[in-house]
């Protein structure tokens, strides 16, 4: 029986029009590196400082502390600008799925490759709230600010368990739109799902050790693992 569903944010629960991809690519290219589409996809979903560091190196630029810090500031500035011009929205069916899960006694946590300074304003722009009552949107939010390392390490999932009082990882279902989301779920020992609402295709997600590849979060309440 599943007691906690841990979901990624951009591309999984939130439609930002691909802004995260564009911001990450732009930040790295402005530092003089080239960005291959495969490399960009590989590092999506990870901690963005780690992503910038590795994409710089893959793109032929030595990732000094200064370059990485500057790249991360450019990434955040681009996100802020684009989110103001084109506000993100909930992916179709997500809000209904979250309400169904929580009404059925399942805790819901959001995990993200963003830090606090990006994640919480994004949630506020959607009007999403955090709390234990059913009037809230989710029970907990875990960002890269909360852990020593982001995906594919399972630490955000474990912190979500801690925040929601879930002791058994076998009672956790994880879903995300990137390969590292699926990998983190498996590394945690949880039920691990890929969703096709981001830029990764079915073959990319299915290549990971997974339990389900879903069209979207809206399918989660109907999974056999959620049967009460």
UniProtKB/TrEMBL annotation:
Q: What is one GO cellular-component annotation here? A: cytosol
Question: What domain of life does the UniProt record list for this protein's source?
Answer: Bacteria
Coiled-coil region: none
Q: What residue ranges are annotated as transmembrane?
A: none
Q: Name one GO molecular function term.
A: phosphoglycolate phosphatase activity
Q: Name the keywords, alphabetized.
A: Hydrolase
GO BP terms: namely: DNA repair
Q: Which InterPro entries match?
A: HAD-like_hydrolase_sf (IPR050155), HAD-like_sf (IPR036412), HAD_sf (IPR023214), PGP-like_dom2 (IPR023198), PhnX-like (IPR022468)
**Classification via NCBIfam families:** PhnX-like
**UniProt name for this protein:** Phosphonatase-like hydrolase
| Annotated source species | Tsukamurella sputi
